Amino acid sequence: MIRWNWAFLDRPVDRFDEAFAFWATVTGSRLSERTGRNSEFAELIPAQGNSYLRAQAVGDAGGAHPDFDVDDLDVARARASALGATTLSDHDGWSAFRSPQGQAFCLTTEDGTRIPEPTVGPGGVRSRLDQICLDIGRDGYDDEIRFWAELTGWQLQSATLAEFTRLVPPRRMPVRILLQRLDENRPAAAHVDMACSDREAVAAWHESLGARRISQGTHWTVMNDPAGGVYCLTGRNPETGLP
């Protein structure tokens, strides 16, 4: 059983400080001391509630990946492998995998109970980083979304746009998972999404902190953070995550 989940933001090692000064500000959190053999990990600690965002310094362009806190790590490891995941590494208390289409994820043994409130920005605008979007190649999409549904035990739900499917998590989970079918075939990747009370106001705030607007759509705004990491701003309710 999954009892809590996390969004991991992976950013280039030489842009780590720049990236997470930004993310700490826009999520209303502070960056913990770095941990790991190469000081590659840190946590974004909220002012209230339990942490659910982590930072990792990586040797490539980065991206995002989900982590799942589970009741029984050995059972969860065996289930992931049986469903077609590839084990990348096993550690005391956590394991790293790749999904059948290549998306990294981890199984861990921590826990959380209280989702932090949305961050309040200039003028009272509210936002919360609350979603990981898994970008999946066209031909592997159906098999990949079945993998994630079976791994988590969460129901698949069709979205308004045909290229998206949602995994519906229990309400206690801080991170929603959206699955996007791409028009091309390539290994799966991921980015994070933020729910915003005023998408334009949040975009302007982020730009003032060094982010860059890439494109504007009907339902989302694509942004680059100061380290070049892609993320999206959406008009969903930051309290509920719903449209």
From TrEMBL:
Pfam family, one: Glyoxalase_6
InterPro entries noted in UniProt: Glyas_Bleomycin-R_OHBP_Dase, Glyoxalase_6
Species assigned in the record: Nocardia terpenica
SUPFAM superfamilies: Glyoxalase/Bleomycin resistance protein/Dihydroxybiphenyl dioxygenase
Protein's recorded name: Glyoxalase-like domain-containing protein
Domain of life of the organism encoding this protein: Bacteria
Domain Glyoxalase-like, first and last residues per copy: 9-108, 131-234
